[in-house]
Specification:
Number of strands: 20
Strand content: 15-25%
CATH topology of the largest domain: Sulfite Reductase Hemoprotein, domain 2
Oligomer: single chain
Bound molecules: iron/sulfur cluster
Number of domains: 3
Strand order of the largest sheet: 1-2-5-4-13
Distance between the termini: 35 Å
Largest sheet: 5 strands, antiparallel
Helix content: 10-25%
CATH class of the largest domain: Alpha Beta
Structural class: alpha+beta
Length: about 375
């Protein structure tokens, strides 16, 4: 039997951190997906001083400091405020779910629209906590697979506003795009039922197609700087600080692809982060697992790393059947259960397994459980 788990209806923010197995998780939403080098180095220091020394890069291009003691929350908030990484108003911070294409240039249309939307957040209606926007106005859409409910993109004729879940958008202009986005958000708020929390659950078809999407970027040297990957979105704060310093990057830009840009920096030759395009670990999924999440009874990421490199198929290792790290079907999904692993093929963590009860060493020792047709990463 397949039962999709209930999705929590709120997102942890800086002011409302979430308790996990290793302490509080505090989320920072970088404005314009960018921290100056000074802010990024300050965040790395704070992650080591108050947290476990690990920072998560989320699939909405946010950053999370992990492992914070409850007693340290206030001091950490104050320190983040000194770095100008907090919003003065917690309510507005909660609404600031704005993805931007990470390769924008200072003063270009992406920056102008994202700034205008940030300034207009107070005009939005009450929306579900995960409801968000994508300013995807580079040459071609890059964020089509990233989580957002209202998208501003380019068509062949100009800008469009596209409701997630539909192929076609409504034509708009730079002068009207933000008001149009607010109107669409109000329409959603007035139309949805209590169970409908995302735009894709309601039809709002337009008439104009966006430009064809670009392929997802890979670790490489880009015009903005070095684009590097972080396995499972986990950043060691000390390693990141050292890299920012030695590379003389002017800023850190975040992306929803478990990659980050070191603005103005060359690609490092020796890095603990992922520098090779199509590294199989970048396409593997694993939640933090044990001991970081209280629902997990197994370790996850070390196993997912080995399986991704060995099998060269998309692998998901989940600490439990909730499947937080990936909500789509995978060629191989291993799910922790009472300290052992169940295996689901071509399904999600909550689907019926084809085998049950393997211990970690068996999962790692077994020859590849894939079929020849699974090997899509080759070629
Ligand atoms: S999938 Fe389960 S174990 Fe992993 S983070 Fe989510 S709740 Fe925790």
């Amino acid at each position: 039997m397949s039962t999709q788990p209930t999705i929590k209806g709120w997102c942890p923010g800086a002011y409302k951190p979430m308790m996990s197995g290793d302490g509080l998780i505090l989320r920072i939403r970088p404005r314009l997906a960018r921290l100056t080098a000074k802010q990024a180095l300050g965040m790395c220091d704070l992650a080591q001083q108050y947290g476990s020394g690990h920072i998560d890069l989320t699939n909405r291009a946010n950053l999370q400091i992990r492992g914070i003691k409850e007693a340290d929350h206030e001091a950490l908030l104050e320190a983040l405020n000194q770095l100008d990484l907090l919003d003065a108003d917690p309510a507005l911070e909660g609404r600031r779910n704005i993805l931007v294409t990470p390769f924008y240039e200072a003063g270009d249309i992406t920056e102008r629209l994202a700034t205008a939307l940030t300034d207009a957040l107070h005009k939005l209606p009450e929306l579900p906590a995960k409801f968000g926007f994508a300013i995807d106005t580079g040459e071609a859409p890059l964020l089509a697979d990233a989580s957002a409910d209202i998208r501003i993109e380019r068509s062949e004729l100009g800008l469009i506003l596209r409701a997630d879940g539909t192929d076609l958008g409504h034509e708009t202009t730079e002068a009207t795009a933000i008001n149009d986005a607010i109107k669409l958000a109000r329409w959603f708020a007035n139309t949805r039922t209590l169970e409908q929390r995302r735009m894709a659950q309601i039809t709002q078809q337009g008439v104009t197609a966006p430009r064809p999407p670009s392929e997802q970027p890979q670790p490489s040297l880009t015009a903005t700087g070095a684009l590097l990957g972080a396995a499972f979105g986990s950043l060691n704060a000390a390693d990141l600080a050292a890299l920012i310093t030695t590379s003389q990057a002017t800023a850190l830009r975040t992306t929803p692809w478990r990659m980050f840009v070191l603005e103005g920096a060359d690609m490092p030759t020796n890095s603990p982060f992922i520098t090779e395009a199509h590294d199989p670990v970048l396409s593997a999924h694993a939640c933090p697992g044990a001991p970081y999440c209280p629902s997990a009874t197994v370790t996850t990421r070390p196993i997912a790393s080995v399986l991704a490199k060995r099998n060269r198929v998309q692998v998901h290792v989940s600490g439990c059947s909730k499947g937080c790290a990936f909500s789509k079907p995978c060629a191989l999904t291993y799910i922790g259960h009472d300290g052992y692993f169940d295996l689901v093929r071509d399904g999600c963590a909550w689907d019926a397994p084809v085998s049950r009860g393997q211990c970690a060493s068996d999962v790692l020792r077994n020859p590849s459980p894939m079929r020849p047709s699974d090997n899509f990463l080759d070629g």
